[in-house]
Every structure is written in structure tokens, then in C-alpha cells.
Amino acid sequence: MVNFVCICFQLVYLLLVLAFFSHITWAVKGNSLCKQTGMGEIRPHSVTITEFGAVGDGVTLNTKAFQNAIFYLNSFTDKGGAKLFVPAGRWLTGSFDLISHLTLWLDKDAVILGSMNSDDWPVVDPLPSYGRGRELPGGRHRSLIYGRNLTDVIITGDNGTIDGQGSVWWNWFRSKTLNYTRPHLVELMNSTGVVISNLTFLNSPFWTIHPVYCRTIKSKSTLFF
Ligand SMILES: *[C@@H]1O[C@H](CO)[C@@H](O)[C@H](O)[C@H]1NC(C)=O
Ligand SMILES: *[C@@H]1O[C@H](CO)[C@@H](O)[C@H](O)[C@H]1NC(C)=O
Ligand SMILES: *[C@@H]1O[C@H](CO)[C@@H](O)[C@H](O)[C@H]1NC(C)=O
Ligand SMILES: *[C@@H]1O[C@H](CO)[C@@H](O)[C@H](O)[C@H]1NC(C)=O
Ligand SMILES: *[C@@H]1O[C@H](CO)[C@@H](O)[C@H](O)[C@H]1NC(C)=O
């Protein structure tokens, strides 16, 4: 396990760290060295994922609930933003998109579980800079939590967990039955003001957090396995 006091890093550094360490355990412990910007810390509006029909039984697929909640919260982006609260439970979901001025908050014992059905991870174009999927030609599966052209996004909570249930993907990879490049857990393209803290990331199908063309990524008290 690698322990950092605090990291407030830039894109290139984060990519390197995750490329080398994505298959070992590492922890990021935050303290006052890392000054919080205060940006978006207090959101005037908050909803709970259960208000959108989500069921935290580890079995019900909640992709629609996440998508609908975030679609609803889109109307608050120019009013200081909003918080999506995920209470304790096991919330199975496919890929969903974040929006600007959003806080995704995972309470204690809240676990967001990635679906084990590859259809719940839609295929998107390869990154322009690669020109092809990293593992296979053509598209790639979109990350579980995805964002593009965003600003002021906070993914945090009271030590909740984001678990990609990646073993199915590792098996597809080994048995060469993948049709497209594997997804990441979190990917934020062309985004600024992203803070990821106080969470545990487990079992990513591929790399854990993948910021592409981003500035001001901060990460505190976050464990990656
Ligand atoms: C990045 O996002 C900004 C708006 O947030 C947009 O104007 C710009 O075209 C985007 N660039 C790319 C490469 O997506
Ligand atoms: C992001 O910005 C690029 C370039 O302006 C645009 O082509 C793309 O559709 C935008 N994507 C989203 C999801 O806003
Ligand atoms: C982070 O999680 C811990 C453990 O659950 C909690 O005690 C602490 O208040 C959280 N910190 C922040 C900044 O939310
Ligand atoms: C946070 O959760 C991880 C496992 O998910 C655990 O190892 C760690 O001790 C927890 N931290 C706190 C402060 O509760
Ligand atoms: C790949 O495509 C085949 C044929 O459509 C399908 O049966 C299989 O489930 C796909 N594999 C994955 C990992 O999605």
C-alpha cells in the first residue's frame, strides 16, 4: 500500500500514477496541506437517489434512476448546483453521465456497483488522441461514471464505495471475448474543477479514474484497490 499525505495533481501525473498502480492497492489520505477551494461545497439543492425509484438491494438495476436524478438536477446548474445523495445500500447501475456544478455524495455504507452486463456500459467513440480503442480497434465501453465538458464536479461522501465488479471484465479480457476496449470506473473528459475525495474505488474493469484533457483534479482521502 502506498500512502500519500495529499495530492492535488495535474492530469499527466494522475494518468501515470494510475497506469502504473492500477492493479495494486493505494491510498490517498488527505489533511490540511491540501487547501479546499470551498468551490461548490454547499449546494443549495439536494435530492436522494431513492426519490427517483432507486432500490439499494444490489440486484435492481438503477441506471434509469441515476440518469433521471441527474437530468432533474440539470435545472439547478445555474442556481449554485445540486447534490445527489446516495444513502447506505448497494446500488447496482450501468453507466451514467455527470453534469456541471454537481456533488455526487456517497453516504457511509453506500456502494455504487457496476453492472456485470456489458450492455449497461454503452460503446462510445475512441479517444481522439488514440484514434482507436486502447485494447481493440473501434469503440470502447463508456466508464461507469462519465462526464464531458464539465466544470465544478465533486465526487465525495462519508467513505462510500464505488465498486466496478470488474472481475467479469478481467475474465472477458483473458478469454479474448471482449468486443470493445474495457471501461474505466470514472472518466471525465475536458473538465475542470473536479474534486474526488473520501471514497473507496474497487474492482475497476480497467484503469480506475481516467481524466482526459482535464485541469484541476484534486483527490483526497481516497482509496483505490
Ligand atoms: C471543452 O469544453 C468546452 C466547454 O466546456 C468547449 O467549449 C470545448 O469545445 C470543449 N473541447 C473539447 C475538445 O471537447
Ligand atoms: C463537448 O464539446 C465538444 C466540442 O465543443 C462537442 O463536440 C461535444 O458534443 C461536447 N460534448 C458534450 C457531451 O457536451
Ligand atoms: C470522510 O469519511 C470519514 C469516515 O466515514 C468521516 O468521518 C469524515 O467526516 C469524512 N470527511 C469529510 C470531509 O466528509
Ligand atoms: C473507509 O472504508 C475502507 C474500506 O472500504 C476502510 O478500509 C477504511 O478503514 C474506512 N475508513 C474510515 C475512516 O472509516
Ligand atoms: C461480444 O459480442 C457477442 C456477439 O454479439 C456477444 O454474444 C457477447 O456477449 C459480447 N461480449 C461482451 C463481453 O460484451
TrEMBL record:
Signal peptide span per the entry? 1-27
GO terms for molecular function, please? Answer: polygalacturonase activity
Q: Which UniProt keywords apply?
A: Glycosidase, Hydrolase, Signal
State one Pfam family annotation.
Answer: Glyco_hydro_28
Q: Give an example GO biological process.
A: carbohydrate metabolic process
For this protein, the record's InterPro entries field holds:
GH28_Enzymes (IPR051801), Glyco_hydro_28 (IPR000743), Pectin_lyas_fold (IPR012334), Pectin_lyase_fold/virulence (IPR011050)
Name the family the entry cites.
Belongs to the glycosyl hydrolase 28 family.
Name this polypeptide is given: Pectate lyase superfamily protein domain-containing protein
Source organism of this protein record: Gossypium schwendimanii
